[in-house]
Each structure stands twice: as C-alpha cells, then as structure tokens.
C-alpha cells in the first residue's frame, strides 16, 4: 500500500460527508459491530475510498488494519453511495433528469436508471456528481462499473 492511499481515502470520506453522500456520524447511526453510536468510518481497503462502515472507536480498534482485507461484504452496503443525496441536489437545483443528462453528457436512460435506483454504475454516478457540482473525489470508483 502506498503511504498516501490511506490519506486519500480519509480525505474522500471527509468530502463525502460534507457533500451529504455519506451520513454525518452525529450519534444517530449505530456501530455495525456493537450497536453503540458510530463515530468513525472504517475502511477495510483504502483503495476503495468510500467502501466504509460506521463503527464506534473501540470496535474500529478491534477491527485493526485495513490492509489485505477483501470487502466482499460491502456489496449492497447502503452507505456505499447515497443516491438520496444526488436526488436532493438535483431537486435543489431544479434540474430535470433530461437536464442532468445534458450537463453530464450522458444518455437520458442511463441517468434515469441511476435516479430510479436501478443502477449504481460508478462511472455514471461520477459524471452525475460532476454535473451537479458534487465533489467527484467523493465518489467511490471500484472499477466494476463502466
Ligand atoms: Zn462498536
């Protein structure tokens, strides 16, 4: 692991939290391991910047290092990307799906699939974030998308 991969991953989580893509850990979200209020996002693989789980500090310590862990359990993790934040941003700007598609230079059907929850294709979401002015560093790109 490169020395700055960890820093980049932590930075991406901070940005995503600010942008509303990841929920703020204000005590309302429980630790996935013990149920106490989560205070930190735990990475299992720093290459997957936003593949994180909310945990309390003591559970994060128990989990140990992220190196060498395969985050298969994160498939379907609701925290992977908050499409609600994208929708909220779109609504706030008063953009139709057609307008987002135009700004993102994507086919209408592809943008509609994201907003209707039928696609989480990272490449598409990255373009949509950019079109809506959300920080693209905050988007988890796992290489499985287009
Ligand atoms: Zn815990």
Structure, described:
The chain is mainly alpha-helical and 146 residues long. The protein has 2 domains: 3-74, no CATH class; 83-138, lambda repressor-like DNA-binding domains (434 Repressor (Amino-terminal Domain), Orthogonal Bundle), CATH 1.10.260. Helices cover 42% and strands 5% of the residues. The chain has a two-stranded antiparallel sheet with strand order 1-2. It starts with a helix and ends in a 15-residue tail after the last helix. Bound molecules: zinc ion (ZN).
Helix content: 40-55%
State the oligomer: single chain
Query: Could you tell me the radius of gyration in angstroms?
Result: 16 Å
* Averaged pLDDT: 75
Q: Count the domains.
A: 2
In terms of DSSP E residues, the strand content is 5-15%
Order of helices and strands: HEEHHHHH
Secondary structure class reads mainly alpha
Bulk shape? elongated
Q: How are strands sequenced across the largest beta sheet? A: 1-2
Terminal CA distance reads: 25 Å
**Which small-molecule species are bound to the chains here?**
zinc ion
Say how many strands there are: 2
Tally of DSSP helical segments: 6
Main pleated sheet? 2 strands, antiparallel
Q: Ranges with pLDDT <50 over ≥5 residues? A: 68-80, 141-146
